[in-house]
DNA sequence: AGATCACTGAACCTAAAAGTTCAATGCTGC
DNA sequence: GCAGCATTGAACTTTTAGGTTCAGTGATCT
């Protein structure tokens, strides 16, 4: 399984609505820091920090182009997050099925 | 799509390795606060807080039983996180395919 | 060259997170 | 009823997050 630090960063990056909005926006195509900052009603500096967080998590890739910085999505880390969740999801489904059976059994006994 | 606050809480809850370990542990069956705190080398109070965060996120369900508190997994929120990720994952795959085509085109032009 | 535009770095502020200690509270077992 | 155990709540400390302002830096356009 993926290293803890990687998952820390990915989930932490996704835990902020502003950053999820950035990802949504980049899903429609690349954008500069300024283009991301404007609709969010945030300073360039503030937006830069969010993009940095996403980049550190491997969710976004950036590149300096002239005096702007192009930001694009970079999806390989998403697979990690997805893998973690779906692994436990399957495991939990089984466990919850087990619990259902257990409670059904208990109810039967109570009578 | 699910409300922002819900996703904030779920992703934020998952962004801590201690809490992911709790979920892993609970995947093997219910446990008390004490049983969770001991292997983590943490105080009961500290562990209680983590469990509270998971419970607020809807990832864990707890119930007072005698003088202990039983903690179990509660998976419906996982689906929300999963749904968000997989939606964008698919979207990104398409977009990245597009980018690959773009770069291939550029390389051709550079020659 | 000089003006301007987009971003960046440093410093700062405020609020929230992660953890602690210490003092209740409320069951359980004798 | 009393001792003891598991959890809880309040208060506190230290880091980290999210955001700002203000002063550079480097590219672009006359």
From TrEMBL, chains A, B:
Domain HTH arsR-type: 1-93
Database matches in PANTHER family: SLL0088 PROTEIN, TRANSCRIPTIONAL REGULATORY PROTEIN
Organism of this sequence: Mycetocola miduiensis
One Pfam family named in its UniProt record: HTH_20
Full protein name: Transcriptional regulator, ArsR family
NCBIfam families in alphabetical order: HTH_metalloreg (NF033788)
InterPro entries, A to Z: ArsR-like_HTH, HTH_ArsR_DNA-bd_dom, WH-like_DNA-bd_sf, WH_DNA-bd_sf
GO molecular function per UniProt: DNA-binding transcription factor activity
Entries under Gene3D superfamilies matching the protein: Winged helix-like DNA-binding domain superfamily/Winged helix DNA-binding domain
